[in-house]
Every structure is written in C-alpha cells, then in structure tokens.
Amino acid sequence: AEASLRQSQKMEAVGQLTGGIAHDFNNMLTGIIGSLDMMRRRMADNRLDGFERYLDTALKSAERAAALTHRLLAFARRQPLDPRPLEVPAILQAVAQLVSHALPENIALGLEVADGLPLALADANQLENAILNLAINARDAMPDGGELVIAAGRAEPGKCPAAMDHETCLRIFVRDTGSGMPPEVLDKVFEPFFTTKPQGQGTGLGLSMVYGFAEQSGGTIRIDSAPGEGTTVSLYLPGTFAVPPVEEGKAKVQPKGTG
Ligand code: ADP
User: What are the transmembrane regions (predicted)?
Assistant: First the structure.
C-alpha cells in the first residue's frame, strides 16, 4: 500500500493540533504540579525523605515539556531551506554512524549506496534530520530485532514528481523488517501529532516534518508498508550532475602572486 497526503487531510490535521498539544502538555504539567504539591506537604510535616524522587519527577516532566515546545517551535518555524549540491554517500555514512549508536544489538544496520549517483539538491541539515527520523522510526518498529537498511539509488521510472528531471532524481530510502503498518495507520502517518507510540515516546511530528522537507525540496515521499512485512520509506529528491561550486572556506585561499 502507498500513502500520499492530500492538502485537505493536512488542513484537517492542523485543526487537530491544539487539542493534541494541550493534552500532552497537560500530562506533563500534572507530573510537575503533583510532585511540587507532595514536596510542599512533606515540607510542612518536616519530612524531607522522598524529596529527591519528587524533584526528579518534576524535572523529567519539565524537560519533556521543554522538548515538546522546542519541537513545536522548530515545526512552526519551518527553518528556511538552504539547498546545496550534496554528496549522498557521505551524508548517509554520517547518519548511519549516528544511528548505529542508537540501535540495540538485535538490529542489524546496513548501508546500500548505488554507484554514480547525482548530487542531491537539498538542505544538508534537514536531509540528515529526515533520514535520522526515518531510521529511528524503523528502529522503533522492530522491538524484537530485525534489519534496518539506509540506502540510496536512482529513482525508479514514474516515481519522481512530474516536474522533476527524472535523469537526476534520487531515491534515498530507509527499509526495515519491522511491524509494518495497517492501512488505517498509513492513512494518517503524515498528520502532525499522529502517533501510535506510548505516551511520552512519540510526538507524531517526525513524518510530518519529513513530508514537509521533501515537498519543500521539490521532491516527494512515498511509503510502502505491509503489516508483518516491514516498511520502506522513500524520499525522492532533485539532484544534479553539475560539479558543485567551490566551498566558501576553500575560496579564501589566494593564488600565488596576487596577495
Ligand atoms: P512518532 O515517531 O513520534 O510516532 P512519526 O510521525 O514519525 O511520529 O510517525 C507516526 C507513526 O507512524 C508512528 O507512531 C508509527 O505508528 C508509524 N510509523 C512510522 N514509521 C514506521 C515504520 N518504519 N514502521 C511502522 N510504523 C511506522
């Protein structure tokens, strides 16, 4: 099955934001208020024994609330893209390095990069974040272990957006052998704040951010998934075979005789 997001669905999703945020945030505040309240009562009784535990709970809740607002702000801000020609193998290598530290021993990590790829035209930070998000989702879908592959190749015919030059269109994808998704989940995955993860573990912002990144880059995102068989999430991005411009840092080196 393949998922795509219609604009109307997206607007609907945005309409659900307020309730979702308020709910999560309220849970976090409840943790903070409850802990502070217990501390005040104990202080009145001159009992300081459980203090550290309550402080820990309050602190953890506050940190989670801060992380949520942080992500919300990043999402709302939609940091401007700075598309540049990028060496895909190097980017994937860097992300795989990061991901390897976040994997349990029962998940094998593979890297499959085709030869002769065009350079990707994308924002380096956001591309790395996007792949990282996909890899973390893949990890989370394999609680009993499995295989996670981060890969890049040329796009298959017909998969790139029509406006894109097929010759230079790249496919960067993350494949897992995890739980897969039933159609009713697949229908909703790009909605901001949609998550099936336990409370406090998922924000439901990952795929909506990756979706935004792909579209803003002039590309698209596709998901192939079947329950029990695993999931492949593919980013189709514009690329180029043109030689990248000299980096700013290198340009500062003056040729002999001019200085
Ligand atoms: P979050 O990871 O915080 O839940 P996402 O937007 O990244 O938010 O993902 C939304 C939901 O999509 C997840 O909760 C999960 O149900 C589903 N999902 C995403 N990636 C995968 C995957 N690789 N395998 C199975 N389910 C996935």
Answer: none
Per-residue pLDDT in tens (0 to 9) along the chain, 259 residues: 444 444 445 444 554 555 567 777 888 888 899 999 999 998 888 888 888 889 998 998 898 888 878 777 766 666 677 889 999 999 999 999 888 988 999 999 999 999 999 999 999 988 998 999 999 999 999 999 999 999 999 999 889 988 888 899 999 999 999 999 999 999 999 988 899 998 777 888 889 989 989 998 999 999 999 999 999 999 999 999 987 656 555 544 444 444 3
ipTM at complex level:
0.99
Ligand 1 nearest atom to the CA of residue 192, by list position: 6
* Closest residue by Cα to residue 234 from 159, 165, 143, 171: 171
Of the candidates 218, 231, 192, 222, the residue with the CA atom closest to the CA atom of residue 4: 222
Nearest-CA residue for atom 4 of ligand 1: 195
CA of 138 to the centre of ligand 1 (A): 8
Output the CA 97–ligand 1 centroid distance in Å. Answer: 22
What tokens does 116 get? Answer: 């002769």
Give yes or no for a contact between 107 and 187, defined as CB atoms under 8 angstroms apart. Answer: no
CA pair distance 118, 24, nearest whole angstrom:
42
Q: Measure 205 CA to ligand 1 centroid, in angstroms.
A: 9
Q: Does pTM top 0.90 for this prediction?
A: no
